[in-house]
Amino acid sequence: MKQWVVVVLGVMALSVGASAPTLIVEAIRPGSIAPLSPPTPRSGETERQHQPNAADEHQDTQPAQTGPTYGVLIQIQQPPNQNPVAAKPEEKSHWNTPEGWTAGFTGALFVATTGLWFFTGFLWWTTRRAVIDGEKALKVAQSNAKAARDSADALPRLERAYVFLEIDPDFPKSIKSILDDHQLKDEGLKDGASTTATVKYQFVNHGKTPAVIKSMSAEFHHWTKLPEEIRYIDDPMIGEIVIRASEIWPPAKPETKKHIFEEQGVSGVPDFYFFQKQLPLLDGIDSEAARSLRHPHSFLWFYGHIVYDDVFGTEHETRFCWYYNGLANSFQRYDRSPGEDLNRRT
After folding, report:
1. Residue extents of the structural domains in the chain
2. Is 50 exceeded by the pLDDT of residue 56?
């Protein structure tokens, strides 16, 4: 049943219940109902009532007489084959009395009040159902709104750029070769040894949208320990550098292979050389530095950062700090303290 039908029926019940007491008071108020004529007496009773009255009237009109007074008695004989005839009393309805009207209005008031209770209960039930359904719908709407808001908030995280550092995996092998050459030289087994040490690296965007580079820096040093305070000296930017999704910077340079694959009939197959960003060690590695690195009393430190914006206008930073251990011939990340964040991505 529709809500407006329930409301209309409830209003009608309220109207009937409110008007019933007024009708009852109006019905029992003295003078509000015209008195009805009393019932007509039977003919026999009429004659008996009128005879004394006539005698009284005759006595009043006649002067006072002395002596006895004799009345006249008339008897009406009815044939034996006929039933006595009497005047039929007038039948009157019980409801056509003040008591009947009062009983009727009382019953109507009871019915109206009962109906009012039923309609009120039904209206309460439907209203409660509507409130419960509304609360459920509100919860669903709030849940959907939260899901949409979470989805919108997660979109930048899912679609943003993520720039990482990649270091040439052959770097430890190249440093160990230099250290071995210096050891052979110290033992007189080799005339000379290379002193040039270079770290090769590149940046790669593993996100789904481009990264706009704002600043970057990298340093490569031979120290016994890392300075207490790290300062990033950014390289000068020439033009705008954009690393597209799934691409690297600096981009790899294609070269042409010198040999020919006769079996496949292919010649001039390009080969790509990566890690085009190169940073040499300023003082190089001499015999003394090589001995210090082998023990190890010192290490090779490579650290820096890159700052970039994603397509949503949010700034991000990638920091890195690596060190080379000559005794273990390992090149790994270095984290001095948890709060310093020498290696982090934002």
Report:
1. 1-30+93-159, 163-345
2. no
